[in-house]
Every structure is written in structure tokens, then in C-alpha cells.
Amino acid sequence: MTPLQLDPDRLLPPDPTRRAVARRLHAAVADLPVISPHGHVPAGWLAHDVPFADPTSLLLTPDHYATRLLHSHGVDLAHLGVGRGPLSPEASRAAFRTLCEHWPVYRGTPVRYWLQVQFADLFGITVRPSAETADEIYDRIAATLQTPQFRPRALFERFGVEVLATTDDPCDDLADHATLAADPTWTGRVLPTFRPDRYLEVGAEGWAGHADRLAEVAGVDTGDLPGFLDAMQRRREHFRAHGAVSADHSHADVRAERLPDAEAAELFARAREGSGNPAGATALRRHLLWEMARMSAQDGLVMTLHPGVARSHHGPTQRAFGADVGADVPLPGDFTRALRPLLQDFGTDPGFQLVLFTLDETTLSREIAPLAGFYPSVWVGAPWWFLDAPEATTRHRAAVTETAGFGKTSGFIDDTRAFCSIPARHDMARRLDAAYLSTLVTDGRLEEDEATETIVDIVTVNPRKAFRL
Amino acid sequence: MTPLQLDPDRLLPPDPTRRAVARRLHAAVADLPVISPHGHVPAGWLAHDVPFADPTSLLLTPDHYATRLLHSHGVDLAHLGVGRGPLSPEASRAAFRTLCEHWPVYRGTPVRYWLQVQFADLFGITVRPSAETADEIYDRIAATLQTPQFRPRALFERFGVEVLATTDDPCDDLADHATLAADPTWTGRVLPTFRPDRYLEVGAEGWAGHADRLAEVAGVDTGDLPGFLDAMQRRREHFRAHGAVSADHSHADVRAERLPDAEAAELFARAREGSGNPAGATALRRHLLWEMARMSAQDGLVMTLHPGVARSHHGPTQRAFGADVGADVPLPGDFTRALRPLLQDFGTDPGFQLVLFTLDETTLSREIAPLAGFYPSVWVGAPWWFLDAPEATTRHRAAVTETAGFGKTSGFIDDTRAFCSIPARHDMARRLDAAYLSTLVTDGRLEEDEATETIVDIVTVNPRKAFRL
Amino acid sequence: MTPLQLDPDRLLPPDPTRRAVARRLHAAVADLPVISPHGHVPAGWLAHDVPFADPTSLLLTPDHYATRLLHSHGVDLAHLGVGRGPLSPEASRAAFRTLCEHWPVYRGTPVRYWLQVQFADLFGITVRPSAETADEIYDRIAATLQTPQFRPRALFERFGVEVLATTDDPCDDLADHATLAADPTWTGRVLPTFRPDRYLEVGAEGWAGHADRLAEVAGVDTGDLPGFLDAMQRRREHFRAHGAVSADHSHADVRAERLPDAEAAELFARAREGSGNPAGATALRRHLLWEMARMSAQDGLVMTLHPGVARSHHGPTQRAFGADVGADVPLPGDFTRALRPLLQDFGTDPGFQLVLFTLDETTLSREIAPLAGFYPSVWVGAPWWFLDAPEATTRHRAAVTETAGFGKTSGFIDDTRAFCSIPARHDMARRLDAAYLSTLVTDGRLEEDEATETIVDIVTVNPRKAFRL
Hints:
Number of strands of chain A: 9
Low-confidence stretches of chain A: none
Pathway (chains A, B, C): Carbohydrate metabolism; pentose and glucuronate interconversion
Catalytic activity (chains A, B, C): D-glucuronate = D-fructuronate
EC number (chains A, B, C): 5.3.1.12
CATH architecture of the domain at 53-150 in chain A: Orthogonal Bundle
Mean pLDDT of chain A: 97
Shape of chain A: globular
Strand order of the largest sheet of chain A: 4-5-8-9
Strand content of chain A: 5-15%
Distance between the termini of chain A: 47 Å
Oligomer: homotrimer
Helix content of chain A: 40-55%
Largest interface: A-B, 51 and 46 residues
CATH topology of the domain at 53-150 in chain A: uronate isomerase, domain 2, chain A
Keywords (chains A, B, C): Isomerase
Protein name (chains A, B, C): Uronate isomerase
């Protein structure tokens, strides 16, 4: 059986001089707490502290990074339990075996790295995944998940999580967050994030229903635009009262532009009637995003933008398995032109703070870093989604640092629902920053004491400032 | 006289730890056969096995990589024999001397690398090209080309070519391929590739003539759309009967979208009359490309797309020297949006296979890798044309691997008419993959046995799967 | 107090084999003269040789690279003296203290690198900038600036400047250039550059006034298009008579396309009346740029293009502080399509020479290098503005060399008004080229004697050829 090993120097540069510096830099932050200001772990896991069910439903089924690659190699998503109810024990074991059989598929990808670290470090697996070892690994993880040390709260503590932000619908009552806050035995910090996308997509199917639900939950009539905005404002207050520090937005583009009041009201009325057209829906969505920015400048919720994805690129897959199953494909980005109206109004407003994420790497050196290198309100978001991997993360630092420095970057964002991968993800980011900074030191651009201070800031100060924690 | 030398460790990383790993990885594939599923060597060279004429017409005149750089430094293309008939012995020698005099022009380019390897390894040249050494090198190569060991078939064997695909017009009778297949003394595999671009560009000058010719060759009236498609289908069958495994397409963009039958028929009728307009021609071209995809899903010819070049950017050069003389300039690419209609219909069709090439590197991490990392039908094509060079190839692996892994990449494509450069090109790709994989090994992302298996797969398994060989 | 040190091997690669090669390559060019064919130092500084006033107005206030990063961290531009008259001694000292306090903000940026080299090498500062050391550093620089060795002419000589080009308005009388030329005690070469942007932007506020002024200065009526072009031609002659070798152009895009005479005349007439529309203004600007190219082909002024910036992205900042204060943000570029009309007409004209700069890195491998690798007239401009930094410069070489070689690149352009940073900037470029070339040598792509010749060419031959010096 081939052993599964973790190189203690993984991701650090091979050159001995650089490696020595990188090791010291990594050591300076290796044990610092995890600050996770944007992610998708359900608060309920921690509120109710129920043991995780089985290896597949924890590690494979919900992780579209892992399932899409199997799909690209011909595995049916149904076999992996995607978009279905709970798997039977046999189906769960079979899906996990498929993962192990396809272990070579993940070579060179971050999925391989994260799974390997979880297997080796967290679950104590000592053999390489394969058809032969699949059952052994499955049984070991399944047994481990039943122990008290692997209950969600125990893991939260073990992982050293200082802050964990969830992502939530504006109509969510945030009961799980309230439960945690009210629990004297719980000392962790779990914050909701206001994510109103579907309420802004006025041209999408089902929007009227969302607006109705918003009215009901906020206790305000959303039949006209002022009422709708008032309802939004109230839900933001609700989130702030439960600890929220940011509002997250993901649309096809980032344009946010105010319309004349009458035009906005008119478009809203048409949308409410269901008689609008696509151009009007887009204009109104951009107006509503501008209103979100205005509210952010007032209530202090940091605005984060995650744009530019063709969601559910393959219609038949969406119809069979739903959204968020790995069929989203990025699009070219535009920040310089699209953000101009918004930044005219709020770019130097001390109440406003904006973190920009992108899946289009070309915008990093060309648009995002120059914006963050001028506007006090703008921050460079960490590498996101397809780009939170070693090579892409290194390219990201190289693309933004020379224009925006380190101090206007957000710190690492794990953006994950794969709870057990959180330590591996944050540690990967720390290793890559250690590697990047070690180059600056060894080629004489930075002194080592400055590099040490910088990496500690990246892990601690930057996310606290960027997200007003 | 300055010697011409080949570093046995060329393109491998300088760091000793990485170099040792990279050497072992390269050694594992250095002597494996060459699989060349897309290229431009004429089948007639092998069918008739006529000796190559002279150094210039073999190595310089037809290679627009080499001639365009001389042109950019002020050399007249006419002096190099571009777009003209055969050169006189004096003109051939003079053109070759110009190449040698301009040897410094190629520093840092792959042309320099490929020529150097051919000169040193194949022709036994031991002096650096220059004005002083030009005649000596010319004479040595000219003499060598007259020996039996340098006839095309002998070189084919010496190069270890297992499969060589040519690129052919749908109306080609493929007589040379048939000659080879019928020759009991010939054991190589030389496959045609179906390349119907000009038959799809219904708005281009001369299209009606191509459609007429197609009718004649296929024995089917191409006066209406069903007839035209039937003729195409028949020619594909002809190609398949001669061993073709793929159909190659190169248009300004990759959009392939079905029109309603009546609209397509109407546009076709107008094109046939010569009364169409540009927008209609584009819509019909995209419809015809969709039909090509439909046929691919049925007959199994792998579809390959090579889009996004402004062909013959300089009109006066085209008028004086023809097409394909180095004046083609790339354009921005679009895959996510443009391929959506096609992939709705065939993206998960088990009969359909699509290999995507690009000259716009920004599409690699943003669009192509995410598509190949979800759709079972989609493969990442190797770095192509301007990008089949050391730095660009390394960027290509770094851009796609983290999202699509190694298993959905096509393997190396030489895409060349420069027959003698084929071994140098494939070996370059192997060295660069060895270098890339050695980084994964030395920074702890991959075990060396996995890297070895991966590089062997890239050279053997990947092209066989991607091209259904 | 933490010392301020300069690593003599800064920016050279850490691997010992590569470092040894890179050191030798850098040594071969370290002491060669500075050729600066495009920049923004005022000729008056040298003509009048007045001592520099104070550290802040020399090193901080006019350098938007330095001020924009402080602004992005919340410092008011007014506090730094931006867009205001001279600072009081107290305000100057306070602004400089702000710079020193924010020293960590510049980590990883070229501003840090350039300031550090100036502080250590030029001003003999031995302590790291900080709140504590700010006054000491300020006093030391202030005192030094009063010594004869720090007068502009003394520094010009000390820096080894062989050629320095300024950037000038077409209506400038070039009196300072004339003063220098007439001064028998002055042997330096200071050349004006023709920069007619505002005269081509016919739709911009104030254009009519510029056209009137042009008429007055040129002594030609600019009331119609032939007169306007005649006036331009005369001013170009005036510049050529004062030593100009190039004409520089910076518009939103690079399209230059001839209109029919009547249409151009009509659009010009409307612009003159103030009755034009934006589309007409753009078409006329592109026609005028085409006319500039035509004149360049005739009078031999090298045409340089610096396109693609959203100038003064933040309106309120522009209104308060003016233009060029660090609020310019790049846009996506387009060269292949946009330059086609121009290059049809002048691409192979031996009188025409064109240097292309970009802030959109994606255009380097995709468009600019392929254009420069075919057209004899086209040169790849050096990394510009946001991109004249170590990582970006390395990416630039890697993106263009494999397609265009070294011989069609312009040599380094400092493009700066920060006079004292000129040696540090040119030396940075030399170190980075040494590092790049050392890789080619150590991985067997180039012999060291060729690399040495190449780096010497880049520093000496390339700019002389590209700018016809």
C-alpha cells in the first residue's frame, strides 16, 4: 500500500536560501487563529452541534470543486449524490470509492491538496486513496466522525477559528446565530452575511415571490420602491443586530448606478407587475445595487462584490441537479468602467468600504489594484473560487502587490462550505504568502523583519480592517 | 568559429533538487514514440518519399515562424522565397545566408531553439550560424539531404512517429493517404484531418465555387442546404474511411448555434445566389458549425477549434505573397458565452468530443479550464502557434492544471509543416512538463511516482483519448 | 534605529548558478550611460540649474506613484501638497513625516525600491524611514540639496545621462531646449517630444482655444482642416529643429483611420463651431491621429502610443486637485483590430516607426508581440506606468520575447518626472534583464556571450534604433 504523506515544507520554495526564510515566515503565522469573514458553513451545524453523518455527505457531495472534476471524467453527478436527498449507506460508500479510484484526476489541483491534508492531518489516514484503499479510508473516517472530538463545535475550537461568517438570505431569521449568541457555553464568533442577490434580480423568475416574502418578514409593504428599500434597510438592521459586518453581492457585472427617482419607481412598478423587459431589469438591478452601496455607507456593512460567472452554464444539468453543482463558468470582468458611477458617489466616503473579487485574472493588475491603490474605500479581495490555488494565488500577489501593496488586500477568504478543509485552506494561503515574501527578502526588496510583520498583518490585521471586525 | 552546442539539460530547472527530479521525469518519456494528431506535413512527402530539395525550401521558406521575424527586421519576404515558385540555387543559398546572418534575431524565441536542435542533432552542425559559417552549414545540410537516411520515410522512422495527422480539404481525394495504406512496405500511421473552413465561410469570395466543387466531388447537388449537408456528411465518411479521427475548424469565433430550419435554408439560398449580407453569412456559418458538431457527435470525429486570428492582417503583403506568411495576428477570445448553445446540445453527449485551442491566454484559466473541468466532452488543447514556446507553455500548464487537472489536456500538438522540427518540438514539450511536474514534487504537491505516471500519460494516454486514436 | 541597507545583488535570482550569471550580465551594463527617450523632467531644471527646493516638493508631491498609495490609506492629498502651490517649510516637513510613517505601505512596490535606492545611494541615508527618523532624514536631504553637487546639471552628469527627452506641448516655444543648445558649457543632449493630445481631442472642453493658440503660434489660420494640419506640420518642424525624435500620443484607444476628405473637413468645421457630437469627435480624432502617422512617415518623428487609461477616474478629486494625481485607472486594450487601418497604410513604410505601450498586459503576447514580430515599423514599448516594476517587467519580457525576440523591444523608458529616481529605474531594468537572460543561459537556451551581447544591445542599441537617436 502506498503511504500518504504530508511534506512539512509543502508549497515552500525549493531553493535552500529562500526555503529557510519561507519556513521562518510560515512559522510566525502557522498557529495564529483563523479569521474567516466570508464562507458558506451553515450556522446550524454549530448551533445544534450534531455529528456529521458520513464521509461522503461531509467531504464529497456538497463540494462542487470535487464533484465537477469527476463529472468531467464521465462520472454521473447522481452517483455522487449531487442535488439529491441523503445517500443510503451503500451509495455513500460507493460514491466515496469513486472518489478514491479517481484520485489521479486531482493531481495538480487544490482539491487534491485539501483532501490530502484533511485525510492525513485530521483523520489520520496513512495510505494513498485508490480502489484498494477506499473502504479502509471510508471506515476510518466514518468511525472518527462519531467521536466527540469530531462534533462541529469541537472542530471549531480545534481549528482555532476566531471568526466565522456565514452567508444568509435577507429573510433568514438568523435563529441559529441567535441560539449561538444566547448559549453561555459557546464562546465562538459566528456572524451572518447579508446576501440579497435574488431580491435585486428583478427580471428573474420568482422575483415577485421573493419581494412578497421580504414584505412579510420585514413587516413593510414592498409594493413600491420606497417600501422595498425600507424593507431591505430593516433586514440589514436585523443582520447587524446579529453581528453581521458585510453584505455580499454576486451579479453578472458590478455596475451600480443611480437612476432618476421617477425612472426607478417606474421600472420597479413594471417589475412588480411582471411587465418589465430585460434592459429595464438590468437598469433597475444596477440602481438597487447602488442603493445597497448607499446603505453600506450609512450602516457600515462592508460591501463585497463577487461578479462575473455564467451560472449553471449547462441547462440540462441545472434541471436535473439544481444550481451550484460545478457548472458555473467565469466571464470577462470589467471594473474600471463599471464602478465609475458608484465610486464617484462613495469612493472617498469614510463610511463606505468595498472588497472586489474577480475570476478574471486580467483585471487584477489592470483594474482592481489601481482602484485599491487610489480609493481609500477599495480593497483587493483574495483569490476566489477557481483561483484559490497555489499557482493562481502566487499570480494574484504578483499582479496586485506592485500597484496596491499588501495593506489594501483583504486577507484570505475561504469561501467554503467544506468545513473540515478550512484549516488546510488558510494554511495554504499562509504558506504561499511566506513563499512570496521570501522572494522579496532573498532578492533584496524587503528586510526579513518587515516580511514577518507583513505576513502577520495579512493573517490578522488585514481581514479585521477590510471587514471591520 | 563559435561552436554550436546542445545542453543535455536544456529547459530543465537550474535548482539542483528540482533538476534531479526533472531529469528523471524527462528520461521516462524521452524515447517514447511521437503522437502527432494535428499538423500540416503533406502526406505526399511520405507517399512519394522524394528527397527534400534544399535547405532553404525545407527549413526556411515554408516556416512563417522563421520568415516573419526576418521580415520584422526589414528583410523582404521575396528574398526568402515566400509565396513564389522554387528558388534558384543561388537564391536559395542567399536566403539561407540571410537566416544565418540574422541568427541573433531569434534569441529567446522557440524558432532559435528548434533550429538549433535540428542543426546540431539532425544535421551534425558544430558551428554557430553567422555570416561566416552560412555557406558551410548550407553545404553540409544540402549534402545530408541527398543521403538515403534523410528521405522522408527514413526520417519518419528515425523520429519515432507513431501517428501523424495531416490537414486536408474536404474535396481532397486523399490519394496520398490511400497510397500509403496500400503500400505493404509502409507501416506508419498517417491520418487525414477534415478541415472544412472555406465551405463554412459563406460570405467569403469564392464560396460558391467551393460549394460547386463539393457537389462535384461528393456527387450530391449542393444547391440547397440539405444537399450541402449531405455532401459534407459524405466527405466526412470518405475521410473516416481513410483513417481520419478529427475535424478541425478555424473561424474568427467559436460560436456554433442552430438556426430554425427555414431561416437556415433561406440564408443558404441567399448565399448561393450571392445576395447575402455579412450578418446573415455569420449566422449561417455558426449554424453550419453547429451542424458539424452534430455530425461529430454522430460519426465520432473529434471536433477541434482553433479560433481568434485576424488572418493576413496586412493587405498589401497578402496581395503580394498570399496567406499564411506570418502576418496573422491574434484577437481576444470568447468561449464561455460563445460555446453555450453548442454545449447545451452536445456537452454531455458521449459521442461528442471537443478540443479547444486559443491564442488568447486569458481564456485559459477563466474559460477553457473551467469548461474542461465540468463537461466530459471538452478537452484543453495544447499551447498553440505563438504560444508553443517555453515560457508560454509553462504559463499554459499553470493556468489550466489547478482547475482541470492533467487528465483533460490534449497532449502536445506540433501543428507544424516543418517536418524536421517535429522531434525537437515534442521533446521541448516533454522537457517543459518534466520541469512543471518537478516543481509539484519538490514543493510537496505530488509524489514522484505520480509525476512519472502523469508525464507518461501526457505523452501517450492523453492524445489517444483526446483524439480517439 | 533600524539601518537602511541596499543589497548589492538586489533583484538578481537567489539560485547560486543563475545568480552568478546574472551578476556578470548586470556588471556588463551597470555603468553604461542612461538613454532616456521618453520622460517628463522639465527642461527648465537643466536650463536654469536652480537648486531643488526641499525634499517634499522634489521627492513626494509631484510623484503620483507615491501620493496615490498614501491616499489609498486615508491620507488627504492636500496634506501632501498635491495640486497646490509651494508648501510652507512646516507643511513640507509634515508631509515628509507622513511619508516616513507610512513606509510599510510601500512594501512590495517599486516606489519603495526607488525611494530606498535614492535615500541610500544618493542621499547617504543610513536609517530606515519611520516616524522616529523622519526629521533626521528630512534634514539630511534638505541640506544635501543645497550643495553644488546636487544642482540639476551636476546630477545629470553624475547619473551618466546620455540623452534625456522631455514631453512638450506643440505650442511650447522650447526656449529651455534652445538655451541648453546655445550654452557652450553644456554638453548634454536634452530633446523635446511632440505631444499633441489636446489638439486631437476635438470634442473636449477647451479644444477651440487650443486650436486658436496653435494658429497664433504657428502663424497659420486653423479655421479649416488644411490650415490646422499645416499648423501641426510647422510645429513638428519646430520640434525637429530643436532635436525632437518622436511624437507621443495618448488617447482612450489607438485607432487611427483616414476619413474621406469631405467628411473630415465637415467634422472639423462642426468641431470648430462647437456643434459636433461625440461620435463625430471620435472619428475626427482618429482621422487626425492618422494624419499624425502620415506626418511621422514623412518627417521621421517616431510615433509612440500610450493608450487605454480612464483619466481622473474620480471626478471630485479632479475638481479639487487637478489631473495626474494618481486617480487614473487602466482599461482593456485593443491593438490588432484598432491598428489595422493605420498599418495597412504605413506598416511597411520605411519612414514610419511606431512604438506601442500598454497598461493591459493581456495584449502583450496576444497582439503587440505578434505585430512587432511581423511589421518592420512596429516596436514593443517597455513596461509602462503601473507595470514598470519587478514582477510586471519580468512578465513583460516573458510575454513578448518568444514571439518578437529582444531586437524589436524599445529598451527601457523611465517616463518619469522624478529626476532623482532615474538611475534607480534604469538600473532596475538592467537587473531584471540580467535576471531574465540568466535563466535562458542556465537552462540552455542561450550562450552567455550571446546574453551579454543582448543586454548591452538592450541598453544601447535598441533605444537608439527604436527612437532614431
